[in-house]
Amino acid sequence: MEPAVRLASAVVDPLVRPLFRPEEPHQGEALLASLVTFRGVAPALGYEDLLRTARELVRLAPDTARSHDEDEATATVLARTLWTIGEVDVTDAQAVRLGPQDFARRLRSAVPGADRELSSEAAWFHDSLLVTVCLHILHLLIRRSPALAERMAERSHRIRQLVDLNDVEALRGRPAPSAADAEFEERYLRTVVEQFNRVTIYGIDLPNPNTPDNWPLDATYLSLTAEFDAATTPRPPGTAPATATPTPRTPE
Asked: Which parts of the sequence are annotated with region: Disordered (predicted)?
C-alpha cells in the first residue's frame, strides 16, 4: 500500500538515519533492537532525541494532511510508536518482508491505545505518517545491508519503487511559490538574460574592424567561411583570398 502522507526521501533520510547504527557485517538476520541507536548499553540517542525527530517529521508533513492543533500530541504518539522498534521481536529481514503498511501495524500493536487522546483525524494522520516513516526505514535497511537487499530482491525492488513514487508525489504536492518568490524568479531570469545573452567566437580574424565581436544568443546561427593563408595555400591566378564576415541569422 502506498503512503497517504508523502514525504520526500531527501528530507526524511537525514532524520531516520541517525536512529540506526552504521552497517555492521552479520550473518543472517539481525534484530531491529540491535540496530537502533536509542536502545542497548550506552545508547547514542534517548527518548527526547526521538521525540525531537518525531516533531520534525510532523512539521514536515503537508498542511493539508493535518490540523496543527494536535501536532505536539501527534508527535508524542509517533515517538512512542517508533520507540517500540527497539522492543519488538522483529528482524530486519522480517520488517522488509512485512512492507511499510504491515510493519507500521506491527509497531502500533506494540503500544495499544497510544493514540486514544487524539481525535479521529489526528489518529488517521499519525497512522498515515507512520506508514511513510516505516517506508523510509525499510529503504534505509536495504541500503545499509546489500546482502539483505540481494537476498530479498523482489521486496527491495518494490520498496525502492514506492520511495521513488513517494518522492515524485511529494514534489508535486509542494505549495505554489509566493508572490515574492515569483517576483524574485522573474527578476533573476531577466538579470541572467541581460548578462549572458551574448556569444563570442574566438580564433577568427574579422577584416571589417566595425564588425562586432559578439552576437545575441537569439541569433539562430552564424554563417562562416574559411580564409586560407596566402603564404602557404596556392590559389588560382587573379583570385583574391576568400574572406567572409560572420553574419548572424535570426529565426524566420
From this structure: 230-252
